[in-house]
Amino acid sequence: MYPFIRMAKELLLARRLPDLPLSGVHVSRHICWPWDLDPWVELNNGRTLTLYDLGRVPLGRRVGFHRALAAQGWGMAVAGNTTRYRRRVRAFDRITMHSRCIGWDARFFYIEQSMWLGGECASHMVVRSAVTSTAGIVPPARMLAAMGQAADSPPLPDWVERWIAAEAARPWPPAR
């Protein structure tokens, strides 16, 4: 089940924090609960992606995405991600999550997120996120205009550019 109560808590906490610039880092703290575990008694890889929502959605609130989305009647959707898992997260471990927007292109925003156990990175992810309307994908430039922000993206890291290129070369739909 989706962690609605945890999300409500994170959004309440984010309301009390100052707004962030578009490239600002939202830091949040979480606990790996028993219901987040897989059969090997560690944080489930799918649940990891869900827990990343607990950092990404409050980040959106703090940078002003939510105001613009609500004003325009738009939504946001994950359009892809790449995740690297490096350290086990076990029951009752306390993790610190860092979330930030690293840039955008003509169609998507790119959000970088990481989970930390003490001084070690447990996992790292980049999410490609689309602003959506009933007419389809809303270009980031239009979203940024609705937010009163400049439309120029900071340069995306080379490895993110290569991931974008690899995704563009990937066949769709996949073979059956």
UniProtKB/TrEMBL annotation:
<dbReference type="InterPro" id="IPR051490">
    <property type="entry name" value="THEM6_lcsJ_thioesterase"/>
</dbReference>
<dbReference type="Pfam" id="PF13279">
    <property type="entry name" value="4HBT_2"/>
</dbReference>
<dbReference type="InterPro" id="IPR029069">
    <property type="entry name" value="HotDog_dom_sf"/>
</dbReference>
<protein>
    <submittedName>
        <fullName>Acyl-CoA thioesterase</fullName>
    </submittedName>
</protein>
